[in-house]
Amino acid sequence: MKPVPPASPGLTLAEVDTPALIIDLDAFERNLRRLADAVAGSGVRVRAHAKTHKCAEIARRQVAAGAIGVCCQKVAEAEAMVEGGIADVLISNEIVGAKKLARLAALARHARIGVCVDDARNLLDLREAAARAGVTLDVYVEIDVGARRCGVAPGEAALALAREAARGANLRFAGLQAYHGPAQHLRGNDERRAEIERAAAAVRQTRSLIEASGIACETVTGAGSGSFMFEVGSGAWDEIQPGSYIFMDADYARNEWSAPLPRFEHALFVLAGVMSRPGPDRAVLDAGLKASSVDAGLPTLWQRPGIACVRLSDEHAVLEISRGAAPPALGEKILLVPGHCDPTVNLHDYYVCMRGGLVEALWPIEARGAIS
């Protein structure tokens, strides 16, 4: 069954069906400009992360704002971006499995495709898939700079993989992937800066080792919305991969935001309707766990002082109303700021794009559920 859009252009916010995923277009566009302004003149390229939005229209707008392309985490996301007209896509993740590798290689017939590796066997499988498809894939050796997730150790292990990637046909060693995910959510700027300085030391050592062996290491790519200016300032990265900056969320709002990092605005909201008023201190919304992710905490209410979301179940959000707060009425529409924007987006089929109080457009989330 084709999903029913929650709105159409020209409707007011009060007329949008709930739950719905809302973009404040003015705030969204200011966030695009702030990132471009922040890195202007640095020589560092932006490769925006499409895992945040999963939407080709947003990717095209990011490219129009100066990004060289996008990165994705899954082959299916990359397929949606290439089909949507994005010509340069890096899968900033490891891809394993014959079917996925065949799909990945097929994409390289239509766009420039890069992928990360941290294992020699995976590198061999990538080469074979690329050879069968008659294409060349860009390969980035991922190094672990503090995330303790994927990636080989900086130094000799990375050099060994770079040598393998640079040897033979159908693969091109393009550089290093160096992303410190946990650093994005350290609350203080000084904490984040210190972690990125440690990561930069590992990047420099590894790059120098590779280049000393006679292999060109053209690009170091990585960084996220919570730290990217520290990577830019270090001089160790050539490319940054921010994603959440376009939307922000309740978790990122808890970070300290001060120079050199620009302050981005909340541009993404879950619109929910009041479906029950069982008591003077309680209201229930029609948007629960199937409308908003809680892995980074509960959603917060937008511009409704004295009211807090205290619990989510599958289809309900329970609000606690403090004494003296203006209580919401039955049927009233409430804007929620999701705790984590990326998995929240993956729960919806459309963005309802608002400007001046009216629906301006609906953008399909083509890569929703793209987990393979």
What does this 3D model show about the protein?
The protein has ten helices and 17 strands. The two termini are 22 Å apart. Strands 1, 10, 11, 12, 13, 14, 15, 16 and 17 form a nine-stranded mixed β-sheet that branches. Helix 3 packs parallel to helix 4 (98-107) and helix 4 crosses helix 5. Helix 2 links the parallel strand 2 (45-49) and strand 3 (69-72). The chain is globular, with a radius of gyration of 22 Å. The model has no long low-confidence stretch (mean pLDDT 97). The protein has 372 residues and is an alpha/beta fold. The chain folds into two domains: 27-247, Alpha-Beta Barrel (TIM Barrel), CATH 3.20.20; 267-347, D-serine dehydratase-like domain (Lyase, Ornithine Decarboxylase, Chain A, domain 1, Beta Barrel). It has helices spanning 25-39, 56-64, 75-83, 98-107, 120-133, 156-166, 189-212, 228-234, 250-253, 341-345, and strands spanning 20-24, 45-49, 69-72, 88-94, 112-117, 137-142, 171-177, 219-222, 239-240, 268-279, 282-285, 300-301, 307-312, 317-321, 333-337, 350-355, 358-364. Helices cover 29% and strands 25% of the residues.
